[in-house]
Automatic annotation (TrEMBL):
The keyword Coiled coil does not apply. This is C-type cytochrome. The keyword Glycoprotein does not apply. Belongs to the cytochrome c oxidase subunit 2 family. The chain crosses the membrane at residues 33-57, 69-93. It is found in: Membrane. It catalyses: 4 Fe(II)-[cytochrome c] + O2 + 8 H(+)(in) = 4 Fe(III)-[cytochrome c] + 2 H2O + 4 H(+)(out). Gene3D superfamilies: Cupredoxins - blue copper proteins (2.60.40.420). It comes from Aureimonas populi. Residues 100-224 form the Cytochrome oxidase subunit II copper A binding domain. Residues 231-323 form the Cytochrome c domain. PROSITE patterns: COX2, COX2_CUA, CYTC. Keywords: Copper, Electron transport, Heme, Iron, Membrane, Metal-binding, Transmembrane, Transmembrane helix, Transport.
Length: 323
């Protein structure tokens, strides 16, 4: 009983199929409730007939009426009900396959974070060491409300799966191919996305945030992300460059142009760090830099605990200021 109630508490909110914040999720939600209603109806009818035949009137029916019960109650009724549900489900298909009329965004699932490219023809998951066109960000996907956005999903390493339960169904991200997902958020808000395919040690910590905003705010966000960082004059910058961070991370507007890890140009503006792992602030940044393996077992970033603590904190403060 208690586990059931606890499970139900997750049915509302940022990460629920029942939160109804996208056209596809609403279709899936409707399908779920109708399927549940149909299943309950069939169950009640068949169990009711069984009870009627065995308990209420065990002796009153001859062989003929027994067969009639089985044919009509056990076969015909479930078949009709299931056929109705099938027709309803098929009727939802065109809605799920509608063409995009919004922006195109490439998302690449990588162990264990999300590379995001706005306004781009870039193919996700292909040659991540090469600079790609468009505007790169990570772990926080912005979407315009009311627009059918086309996502191009890929992976450079292993199979991941892109899933924002409140907005749409999940789609696998498979190395060597691009999968399309068209989704239409129907209300503004912040939602959680997860990786829905086991991809390694930190699979459970491979999350992201989705921020659904007005089309104008979306355009403004992409324009802001496209701009190089307003780089503050801070000792953390030198520490970042001298200790090899720039080999894997890019900060546009500086000499840091690494492409292996997340683009950090506007990292301080994101709500979380470590792919949804913890809140974005200098303290958490310092902890993550010192020991990613401790904060997120399986993370591919090496730890920097050998640096003086003051230097780690300086890097963290500088990154936090990259808004
Ligand atoms: Cu990526 Cu599971």
């Amino acid at each position: 009983m208690l586990p059931g109630l606890l499970a139900l508490t997750s049915c509302r909110g940022e990460q629920s199929t029942f939160a109804g914040a996208g056209a596809e999720a609403l279709a899936v939600e409707a399908l779920f409730w109708w399927m549940l209603a149909g299943a309950v109806l069939i169950w009640l009818f068949v169990i009711g007939l069984s009870v009627y035949a065995t308990v209420v009137h065990p002796d009153r029916h001859g062989e003929k009426s027994g067969i009639r019960l089985i044919v009509w109650g056990g076969c015909a009724f479930p078949v009709v009900t299931l056929a109705g549900l099938l027709a309803f489900g098929l009727g939802l298909m065109p809605e799920l396959r509608a063409e995009a009329n919004g922006p195109r965004i490439a998302v690449s699932g990588e162990r264990f974070w999300w590379r995001i490219h706005y306004g781009t023809e870039a193919l996700p998951g292909v040659q991540r060491s090469l600079p790609l066109e468009g505007v790169e960000s990570a772990n926080e996907l912005w979407l315009p409300v009311g627009r059918r956005t086309e996502l191009m999903l890929g992976s450079p390493d292993v199979v991941h799966s892109f899933w924002v339960p409140a907005i749409a169904g999940k789609t696998d991200m498979i190395p060597g191919r691009i999968n399309r997902l068209v989704l239409e958020p129907t209300r503004e808000g912040v939602f959680n996305g997860v990786c829905a395919e086991f991809c390694g040690t930190a699979h459970a910590q491979m999350g992201f945030r989705v921020r659904v905003v007005s089309p104008e705010a979306f355009e403004a966000h992409v324009a802001a992300q496209a701009a190089p960082a307003a780089v503050p004059d801070h000792p953390g910058r030198a520490a970042f460059m001298q200790n090899g961070c720039a080999a894997c991370h890019a900060v546009r507007g500086t000499e840091a142009a690494g492409r292996l890890g997340p683009d950090l140009t506007h990292v301080g503006s994101r709500r979380t760090l470590g792919a949804g792992l913890m809140a974005m602030n200098a303290d958490n940044l310092a902890r993550f830099i010192a020991s990613p393996e401790h904060e997120k077992p399986g993370a591919e970033m090496p730890g920097f605990a050998m640096l003086p603590q003051a230097e780690i904190e300086a890097i963290a403060l500088w990154l936090e200021a990259l808004q």
